[in-house]
Amino acid sequence: MDRMMDMRALVGVVNSGTFKGAAKHLKVSPAMITSHINSLEERLGIQLLSRTTRKVNLTEAGRTFYEHCTRILAEVDEAESIASALQVTPRGTLRLNTSVTLARLVAPLIAEYVKLYPEVAFDLVMTDRMVDLVEEGFDLALRAGPLPDSSLIARRIGLGRLVLCASPAYLAEHDAPTGPADLDGHNCLLSLNSFPDSGWRFIGADGEHNITATGNFRTNSVEALRMAALSGHGIGLLPAVIIADDLRAGNLIQLLPEFRTNEAVIQAVYASNRHLSAKARTFIDFLVSRLREDPNWVAYPLAVVGKAGRTQSQSGRRL
What is the span of the domain harbouring residue 8? Predict the structure, then answer.
């Protein structure tokens, strides 16, 4: 039988003075209380209670055992209370994994979040590989672009706008494209990640244009793409949030602003076999709220949740 229930039965009998009283308190039958007490005495090999028709008393050994049981049960109840509180009030350390690129977005938002929830601390670890959340002890990961099929749960938190851009130095030597088709004659800076890779999409007043971009520079680092664009090496399709300062300073120039381009899907990912803690849940909600306010992002008005790699849009199509 359940040892914890055995102890609760004993404490219930002693505190109420009767088996019937313990059964009522624990919401079980008197026969079940008797079964638990017998199981406990048989396992310990001692008599814990002396029973008469009118009264139940503790034996000397029973008194010692009862005192230990009350302390143990109090500690268990306190532990359960603390664990439940963690699901209600954000506190503790949130172990967060992001790509190197997204860390640039997330770090300032962490500072804002901690002002709202000062009992939460962060361990932020940056990797460009998708970590094993359970094995490596992460509560949450943030990733951009498609994810491999897995048992992980992914919640889409926004779309990052991508901006076609080049430096003034590059444009001084090359004519600026006037339409997507003109990119065929330019050196395009390409991402080795799955988005947007060499398939660049543009949507304008005249419809959709799908361009296969070509160039002599490919990298899996968004920061390296940014530096290549700044140096005048070619035309890049880069996250607006990464190059916002460069655009404001005039170090990069936006091209074809009348066209809508690819967007990078940002997802919060967590293990499906874990209850999402209050700190993780509120941090995701905070990100959604803040991204909705940022013109560089298009945040989803409602949560979109699904298996990683099979996340559905609100219209139901796979993305």
Answer: 3-86
